[in-house]
Design a protein that fits this description.
Blueprint: E1 3-11, E2 14-20, E3 24-28, H1 35-47, E4 68-76, H2 78-84, H3 98-103, H4 107-116, E5 122-130, E6 134-137, H5 141-150, E7 153-157, H6 167-177, H7 181-196, H8 199-214, H9 224-235, E8 242-243, E9 246-247, H10 253-274, E10 280-284, H11 292-303, E11 310-315, H12 318-327, E12 331-339, E13 342-347, H13 358-361, H14 364-367, E14 375-378, H15 381-387, H16 390-395, E15 403-406, H17 411-417, H18 419-422, E16 428-432, E17 438-441, E18 446-449, H19 470-485, H20 500-515, E19 518-520, H21 525-529, H22 535-545, H23 548-560, H24 568-577, H25 588-591, H26 597-606, H27 615-625, H28 636-645, H29 647-660, H30 662-675
Parallel strand pairs: 3-11, 3-12, 7-10, 10-11, 14-15, 14-16, 16-19
Antiparallel strand pairs: 1-2, 1-4, 4-5, 5-6, 8-9, 12-13, 17-18
Helix pairs in contact: 2-4, 6-9, 6-10, 10-11, 11-12, 19-20, 23-26, 28-29, 29-30
Length: 681
C-alpha cells in the first residue's frame, strides 16, 4: 500500500490514534464522534507539506495546557524504488518549471537515496506544531517535495461539491494530462504555426498582443497542470461537462454527485496507472443526499479502485459500509466513539473473520449497530415494541440514545453486531429472559443451567470459561453449588415460588451476568410489566379487553387460588394471561397438567393474545394517560407539551412508573450506565 500508517496526537478531539491502512479504509461512528477530525488532520498535514498554512484551531480544546500537535504519515516507497532503479534521469513532466527540474534533477536517484536509509523502504514524515513556534518537520523540504509528488492528495468534501461547475474534476484531469516540458514546447510551437497559417486568427492574436503591450501587461506562463487543462478544453471543443447531452443542472443532486465521484475516481485511478504516483483520496460522507440505488453505484466506483490508490472514507451509511465490506477484499474498518470529550478509534473485526457466509447474511439494519451511541440486544418483538414506545422515551429521554436490535437468536448475526466480537467500543447490553439461563426440572426437582443459548453468549457460566476477575470466580462457583444443591418450596398448579433461597439464586445469576453485560429478567419481559405492584392496573387492563361475563368468571377463579400467604399466585396467573411465565418459568401448558379442565378452559379464554398483537403499546399508553386529565389529547406531541408545562405531574408519572415497574426501571438505569460508561468497557 502507498500509505501504510497514520498517527495523530493531540489534534482537536484526538488524543492519540494509530490507523494502519489498506486499499479502502472506513471510518464509522455516530455523529460528533470525531471522524471528520481524522480527515482534517491528514488534510492539514498535506496543506503544510510544501507550503505554509498554519492554523491555531487544531489544538486540544479540552486541555488548555496541551500546546503540541503531532501528525505522522508512513509511506511505502518500495514500488518507486523498483521503478527508479530502471531509470537514470527525471521525467520532465514531474516539474512545472525549468528551475524545479534543475533543482530536483536526479529525481529517481533521489527516490532511491530517500528510501535506502529506511527500513523496508518505508519512510515516516512527521509534522510537529507547537503553539507560538510553528511547524517543524523531520524531513527537509526537498524530501517532502518528493513525497508530495509521489503520493498526491485529494480531499473530497461531498457536502461542498461543485456539482455544476466540476472545477476539481478539471484539476484532476489537468494533473492526468500533464506532459513533459519538451512535449509542451513542441505542442506550443505547433499551435503557433497553426495560428500563423490562418490569417484571420493570426490577426486577432496580434491585436490582443498589441493591447497587452500598450498597457505594459504580460501573461505569466501557466503551470503544467493549467496548460494541460486548457489544452484538454481546446481539444474537446468546450469546458462545460454534460450528461447524455443535457446540462448538469437538469439532473438531481444525487445523480450529479455519483457521476462527479465516479469521474473523479476514474481520473485519479488513471493517474496511478500512467504516472509515477500513488494517490491518497479522502471522502467525507460521500453518501450525502444519495438514494440507496446511487449508494450501490458509489460502491461499484470504490470497489474498482486500483490497489495503488488509498481511500479513506468517513461514512454514516450502513448500506455503503455493508456493500464495501461485501465487495472489497482489501478493506479495514475503524469505529470511532466519543468518550469524555475525546475520540477513541478502534480497528474492527471484518466479516471474513467470522465465517465465509456471514457477508451474505448481513443486512443494512445490522450494520446500523456500528453507528450507535449505545446498543441493547433483545430476543423478540415484544422488547422492540416496548422500547419504541414514544411515551417512555419522553419520560426517560436517554432511551432515545440507544438502538435496540433483535439479534439474540442468531449467533452469526449477533457476532457481527456485538461490540465485544467486532472489536468496536460501543457500549452495549444484552436483555434476556431467565429461561435462557436455567430451567427447573419438576421431575427431579432440581435446577439445570442451560447451554442451548448461542455459542459465545452466556458461556460465561460454563466451567470451561476462565474468568480473570477473582470475585467473579467465587460468584460463579457459588452459582454452580446452588444449582446442584438448591431445593425450593413452590405451590401448584402455577409453580409460584417466594422461597428466599430461590431469590438468592436468581440474584447471584443476575449480578454475575450483569458484570458480563447481560441483564436477566426475573422471569420474562412480560413479568417486568405484570408484577405484584402493577397487578391492579394489569387486571383492569384485562377487564377492558374481555367480555364482562368472562372477566367476572376469571376474577372468581383468581380468588379461589388466592389463599392466605399465597398472594403471588394471582400474579402468576395474570402473567400467564399475557403470555408470560410463572416464578419457576412455567407456561400455561405446564399449569394445565395440575388444573381442572374447566379452570384451564376459562384461563384459555382470558389470554390476551399473541406476543406481537400490540398489547404492550396499549398497556404502557394506558398507564401513562391514566394519570393525566381526560381532556389531554392522546398523542406523543400533546404529552410532550404537557410534560414541559407541568413538570410536577411528569415527576409524579415517573415515580409511579418506578413503583409499578421497578424491574423495568432497573433495566433503564443500567442502560443509562452503559451510555455514561458506568459499566466496565
Amino acid at each position: 500500500m502507498p500509505l501504510i500508517n497514520i498517527r495523530i496526537e493531540n489534534f482537536k478531539s484526538i488524543k492519540r490514534c494509530d490507523i494502519s491502512t489498506d486499499n479502502i479504509n472506513l471510518l464509522i461512528g455516530a455523529n460528533g464522534t470525531g471522524k471528520s477530525n481524522v480527515l482534517d488532520a491528514i488534510d492539514y498535514f498535506y496543506k503544510n507539506l510544501t507550503e505554509q498554512n498554519l492554523s491555531e484551531d487544531i489544538y486540544d480544546a479540552n486541555n488548555r495546557f496541551s500546546n503540541q500537535v503531532s501528525i505522522t504519515l508512513t509511506f511505502d516507497l518500495s514500488s518507486f524504488v523498483m521503478i527508479s532503479r530502471t531509470h537514470t534521469d527525471a521525467e520532465d513532466f514531474l516539474f512545472d518549471t525549468k528551475a524545479e527540474r534543475v533543482k530536483y534533477g536526479s529525481y529517481f536517484e533521489s527516490i532511491i537515496s530517500l528510501a535506502s536509509s529506511r527500513k523496508n523502504n518505508t519512510i515516516k514524515v512527521k509534522l510537529i506544531q507547537i503553539k507560538g513556534i510553528g511547524i517543524r518537520w523531520n524531513l527537509p523540504y526537498e524530501n517532502r517535495f518528493i513525497i508530495k509528488s509521489l503520493f498526491p492528495f485529494f480531499y473530497i468534501n461531498t457536502r461542498a461539491l461543485d456539482i455544476l461547475e466540476w472545477t476539481q474534476i478539471w484539476n484532476v484531469l489537468g494533473e492526468l494530462g500533464k506532459v513533459s516540458n519538451a512535449n509542451r514546447k513542441t505542442i506550443e510551437q505547433d499551435i503557433r504555426e497553426l495560428i500563423q497559417n490562418n490569417p484571420e486568427m493570426s490577426g486577432k492574436i496580434k491585436a490582443i498582443q498589441r493591447i497587452l503591450d500598450s498597457s505594459q501587461l504580460s501573461i505569466q506562463s501557466s503551470t503544467g497542470k493549467d496548460f494541460a487543462i486548457n489544452l484538454c478544453k481546446v481539444y474537446l471543443a468546450g469546458a462545460t461537462i454534460q450528461q447524455k447531452g443535457k446540462n448538469l443542472n437538469y439532473y438531481s443532486t444525487g445523480t450529479n454527485s455519483v457521476k462527479y465521484i465516479e469521474l473523479l475516481i476514474k481520473a485519479i485511478g488513471e493517474i496511478s496507472k500512467t504516472k509515477l504516483k500513488e494517490p491518497l483520496i479522502l471522502f467525507d460522507e460521500p453518501e450525502t443526499s444519495l438514494h440507496p440505488s446511487f449508494i450501490d453505484e458509489l460502491t461499484d466506483c470504490y470497489s474498482e479502485v486500483d490497489l495503488k490508490t488509498c481511500l479513506i472514507i468517513s461514512s454514516h451509511s450502513a448500506r455503503l459500509v455493508k456493500n464495501l465490506i461485501t465487495n472489497s477484499q482489501h478493506i479495514k474498518l475503524y469505529n470511532i466513539i466519543l468518550r469524555e470529550k475525546y475520540s477513541q478509534i478502534t480497528p474492527m473485526k471484518q466479516f471474513s473473520q467470522y465465517s465465509p457466509e456471514s457477508k451474505y447474511r448481513v443486512y443494512d439494519d445490522h450494520i446500523n449497530a456500528y453507528f450507535s451511541k449505545g446498543i441493547l440486544f433483545v430476543e423478540g418483538e415484544t422488547e422492540l415494541e416496548l422500547f419504541a414506545n414514544p411515551y417512555l422515551q419522553i419520560l426517560f429521554p436517554q432511551l432515545k440514545e440507544i438502538d435496540v436490535f433483535k439479534a439474540m437468536t442468531d449467533e452469526l448475526i449477533l457476532d457481527v453486531m456485538t461490540p465485544r466480537k467486532n472489536h468496536s467500543r460501543i457500549p452495549y447490553l444484552y436483555l434476556i429472559d431467565m429461561d435462557k439461563v436455567f430451567e427447573y426440572d419438576t421431575a427431579s426437582r432440581q435446577f439445570k443451567l442451560k447451554r442451548e443459548f448461542p455459542k459465545g453468549g452466556i458461556d460465561f457460566l460454563y466451567r470451561g470459561k476462565k474468568d480473570r476477575n477473582r470475585p467473579m470466580v467465587f460468584m460463579k462457583k457459588r452459582i454452580y453449588r446452588m444449582t446442584s444443591k438448591l431445593k425450593v418450596h413452590y405451590r401448584l398448579p402455577f409453580y409460584s415460588c417466594t422461597d428466599h433461597n430461590y431469590l438468592s439464586y436468581y440474584w447471584a445469576i443476575h449480578d454475575y451476568l450483569l458484570y458480563q453485560r447481560y441483564f436477566v429478567c426475573r422471569t420474562t419481559i412480560e413479568g417486568m410489566l405484570i408484577n405484584d405492584k402493577s397487578f391492579d392496573y394489569a387486571l383492569d387492563f384485562l377487564r377492558r379487553k374481555k367480555r364482562e361475563n368472562i372477566f367476572n368468571d376469571f376474577t372468581n377463579l383468581l380468588n379461589q387460588y388466592t389463599l392466605p400467604f399465597t398472594s403471588n399466585d394471582k400474579v402468576n396467573i395474570l402473567r400467564l394471561m399475557f403470555n408470560g411465565k410463572t416464578d419457576l418459568l412455567k407456561t400455561m401448558s405446564i399449569a394445565k397438567l395440575s388444573l381442572p379442565q374447566n379452570d384451564y378452559e376459562l384461563l384459555e379464554k382470558c389470554v390476551i393474545g399473541k406476543k406481537t398483537c400490540g398489547w404492550v403499546s396499549e398497556y404502557i399508553d394506558g398507564f401513562v394517560f391514566s394519570m393525566l386529565p381526560a381532556d389531554i389529547e392522546r398523542t406523543p406531541k400533546a404529552f410532550k407539551r404537557f410534560c414541559v408545562e407541568h413538570e410536577d405531574v411528569k415527576k409524579e408519572i415517573i415515580n409511579a412508573f418506578i413503583y409499578n415497574f421497578n424491574e423495568l426501571y432497573e433495566l433503564f438505569s443500567k442502560i443509562y450506565d452503559i451510555i455514561e460508561g458506568g459499566i466496565k468497557q
